[in-house]
Specification:
By secondary structure, the protein is an alpha+beta fold. It has three domains: 62 residues, no CATH class; 47 residues, no CATH class; 120 residues, Glucose Permease (Domain IIA), CATH 2.70.70.10.
Amino acid sequence: MEQGKKKKKEVIKKLKNKFRLVVINDDTFEERFSILLSPINVFTLTGLLGFLFTSAIVATIAFTPLRELIPGYSDINTKKMAAYAAFKADSLEVKLNVQKQYLNNIKMVLKGEPTNNFISTTENKDINYDTITIRKSKGDSMLRDEIEKQERFNLSPAFSRSESSDIGSVFLMPPVDGEITSSFNSSIKHYGIDLASNNNEPVIATFEGTVTLSTWSVEDGNIIQLQHANDLISVYKHNAVLLKKPGDVVSAGEAIAIIGNSGENTTGPHLHFELWHKGSPIDPQKFILF
């Protein structure tokens, strides 16, 4: 034990031994510089210098463009572009899904099939729709009462019972959402009305019935004709596409054609719509609210 203590004291003594480092001019032997050192001081100073040198290198690489020279390390602009590309791809995927759902709904509408697939880009999972209550305002109630009084005895405001009493109880739907550009005029043999609308607008059946004609002519283009109850016939001319064939049974509001500009007797996308009752043409504006 005593020998171990003696060796330890000798090692500590050697580490504390002081040495003088002297710099002398070789020609004149003049002392230029001298410093008093010990092994402990040398080790401490060397370690400190090594730490400072390593820290300087790490800081230079981390906070200067030199880091881009390291293989596998991407610059900040590349990271920003990658994040933007990922965000853009996600947005495009959402838009693509919406477009697919929209096209599927259009196809189902054109086929006359019901659709419950609503287009939505967000999900409100936290909303409990069972707890939502809707209250009618005083103004809303007054408006409802006024409209009900006006429409109580009249399904179609422009209807004239003296002209065709057999179809007085029939509610006819507008075949297309558009503007009337030419009215009914039997004196010039214009036995219907012209409705201007946008391209690719669906044409719907004004009332339930059976397709008796689905053909094409040079003058009127693609024509489709429906036979309804009470000896009522509806005719749709200048269509771009016909969606039904003779013998098909259609419901009111079901798509039967696509509005177009076919035939020689047309100057733009529109629908020529006719109503015939018991073999005579009648004015559609007297039975349908356009």
